[in-house]
Amino acid sequence: MKIDHVVLAARTPEQAEQTLPEHGLGIARGRVPHGFGLSNLVGPLGQSSLEIHYPNGGEVDPALPPIGEARPRALDRVPWPVPHEERPHGPAAPHARRPAGIAGLDAAEAAESVTHWCGGLPEGVRVVEGDTSPLRVRVGFDDGSRGHAGRR
Description:
The structure is a single chain. The chain is built from three helices and eight strands. By secondary structure, it is of the alpha/beta class. The strands form two sheets. The chain has a four-stranded mixed sheet with strand order 1-4-3-2. Strand 5 (99-108), helix 3 and strand 6 form a beta-alpha-beta unit. It starts with a strand and ends with a strand.
């Protein structure tokens, strides 16, 4: 099992807009999911993607499932176990470097929670004690180098 998609958080739109380009990654698109109080930016990484969520000042719809409440509280950042063939094909992005995909993820979460959410422990995931979910995501590039986003 490989990581398909990781969501990280930014505090402001400006911080979100800087995160992907500072690692040589382009932004493919952004959107405002209704009722979550968040906006996002997406950077495709081959068969995976990195998404940056940030608060947009919108109201949270109380009728949404519990994740609608969790995201504004902790901007719940978790890997989503959606197989590549089941994902909608996203647009390309103007990358400065050519990403090969997600090479790893450090998650501060109970190991049982990650394995329950993902149906097993995905390749490249390191679980450490904590409750803030992804701490950092490592991105592999075609030239063999790696970069990371998130906490250092």
